[in-house]
Amino acid sequence: GIGVAYRFKPSLVALTRLRMESVLAAATLLFWAIALTLYNAPVDAGMLTDIRHPESDGWDANSFYSLWASGLCSMYLVADLLSGNCPTGRTVVAAGSSRTDVTARLWILLLFSSILLLAFSIAIKTGPMCEGRYLQDSPCCTSTAVSLVTSVLGMLLCLGQMLVNRIVDVVSRQRRGVVKTTTEHLLAMPVLVGYACNVGFATGPGGAGANVSNMYVASWLSLLLSLKLNVEYLGLHLTMDINSDNRSIPDRARRRTRSSERSSFVYATGNN
After folding, report:
1. Which tens digits make up the pLDDT trace of 97-155?
2. What is the pTM of this model?
């Protein structure tokens, strides 16, 4: 219904007024979290089949994958709005700002995935799969402990990036772009290492995410987001998108083009 309303100008203006779009995006993410909680609720003892686990004969793959697809779309929408995209759709794009917008969005998405991984790790660690002394020493519970620690460290690094971002904006007036990019890249590298180790433990043989499950999706999602984040920062450094004088490459290229045009004009008039 909201998608159809965006096709008409009166309803579009009403929905994008007073940050209504942000409220709708947050509500969508909240409803998805409720649906995910209900999907993973304890199964009644009287039920013959369980649709949530691939090992069960009644597993419904459509429900599992559609739930995660809608969750990814909801998280991306909220991250896009929180990373600076104007809810009214009128966004001022500065030269060289596209990559920094992408990294800000990836940090927020990584925070969401870390929260999900933490929630699933706690659910397994405190559930019947890890009850008793013998089960706690099993590979499944050991990998869950690794995921638990990794998700907490990932959340702390994501929150640290937001804090560093604020501090650099206030303290460092000169070379702000270089300092911010370098500091955030130093925070992104341990995130990638941690989630790579987590995938090895959690999705390996005997791990909590060895089969298709919430742990499997959350572990790989965190790893792919951290990998994409480090690739973006590597691109920022290699392409010199941020310079010490806070001028981007398109600006310098534009000045060189104008100077070459003036030189060509002087040369042509001199020959005439």
Report:
1. 555 678 889 999 999 999 999 999 998 888 877 877 777 778 888 888 899 999 999 99
2. 0.72
